[in-house]
């Protein structure tokens, strides 16, 4: 009798993810940076944000002062570069070829419109569970904001953004196991809350539009 080999059961992916993490993050340059596929760009961005945080929080640089100093430094570099290009075999900077692509702004506007629509849908209370979870999350963020400056909080979020994806990719199976257990506990808690509290909240009658 042939012996059938048992394949190890795969744990469900976080958020029921079916695609690779690189594809979920967009599969482009941004995904390469977040997952440290392009180590030079990732390290450069982390170093740049760390320098900005150091200048504002540790050195306590004023934003306007720093901006003026940076612009003056750029102007001096361009002045020397432009005037020395005729004496030394340097190519002039092709600044007129530099343009911010229009799809970048279109993408930002689409994300902003999507955020406003989702915020409106949550605020109307169509999903009471999501409504109260959002209220609780905002309250927690407001409490955290009392202990951190805005720049410190943004820097912490940035560090999480560039470390959590790569850590999740390395320890995906362990995270999926813990997330599945936590998801079951949260669902059990929300079911209890929905049965004992949310279902007892009176709601007004839903008016249906009459077809003329």
From TrEMBL:
<dbReference type="InterPro" id="IPR003388">
    <property type="entry name" value="Reticulon"/>
</dbReference>
<dbReference type="InterPro" id="IPR045064">
    <property type="entry name" value="Reticulon-like"/>
</dbReference>
<protein>
    <recommendedName>
        <fullName>Reticulon-like protein</fullName>
    </recommendedName>
</protein>
<keyword id="KW-1133">Transmembrane helix</keyword>
<keyword id="KW-0812">Transmembrane</keyword>
<feature type="domain" description="Reticulon">
    <location>
        <begin position="30"/>
        <end position="212"/>
    </location>
</feature>
<dbReference type="GO" id="GO:0005789">
    <property type="term" value="C:endoplasmic reticulum membrane"/>
</dbReference>
<feature type="transmembrane region" description="Helical">
    <location>
        <begin position="62"/>
        <end position="82"/>
    </location>
</feature>
<feature type="transmembrane region" description="Helical">
    <location>
        <begin position="40"/>
        <end position="56"/>
    </location>
</feature>
<keyword id="KW-0472">Membrane</keyword>
<keyword id="KW-0256">Endoplasmic reticulum</keyword>
<feature type="transmembrane region" description="Helical">
    <location>
        <begin position="128"/>
        <end position="147"/>
    </location>
</feature>
<dbReference type="Pfam" id="PF02453">
    <property type="entry name" value="Reticulon"/>
</dbReference>
<dbReference type="GO" id="GO:0009617">
    <property type="term" value="P:response to bacterium"/>
</dbReference>
């Amino acid at each position: 009798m042939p012996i059938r080999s048992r394949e190890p059961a795969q744990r469900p992916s976080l958020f029921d993810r079916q695609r690779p993490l690189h594809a979920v993050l967009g599969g482009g340059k941004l995904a390469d940076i977040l997952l440290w596929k392009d180590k030079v760009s990732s390290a450069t961005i982390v170093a740049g944000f760390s320098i900005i945080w150091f200048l504002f929080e540790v050195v306590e640089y004023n934003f306007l002062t720093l901006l003026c100093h940076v612009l003056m430094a750029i102007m001096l570099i361009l002045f020397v570069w432009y005037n020395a290009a005729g004496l030394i075999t340097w190519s002039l900077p092709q600044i007129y070829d530099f343009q911010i692509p229009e799809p970048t702004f279109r993408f930002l506007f689409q994300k902003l419109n999507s955020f406003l629509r989702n915020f409106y849908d949550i605020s109307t209370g169509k999903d009471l569970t999501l409504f109260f979870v959002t209220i609780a999350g905002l309250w927690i963020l407001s409490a955290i904001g009392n202990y951190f400056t805005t720049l410190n909080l943004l820097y912490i979020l940035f560090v999480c953004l560039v470390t959590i994806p790569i850590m999740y990719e390395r320890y995906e199976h362990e995270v999926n196991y813990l997330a599945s257990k936590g998801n079951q506990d949260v669902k059990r808690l929300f079911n209890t809350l929905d049965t004992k509290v949310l279902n007892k909240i009176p709601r007004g009658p839903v008016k249906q539009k009459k077809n003329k």
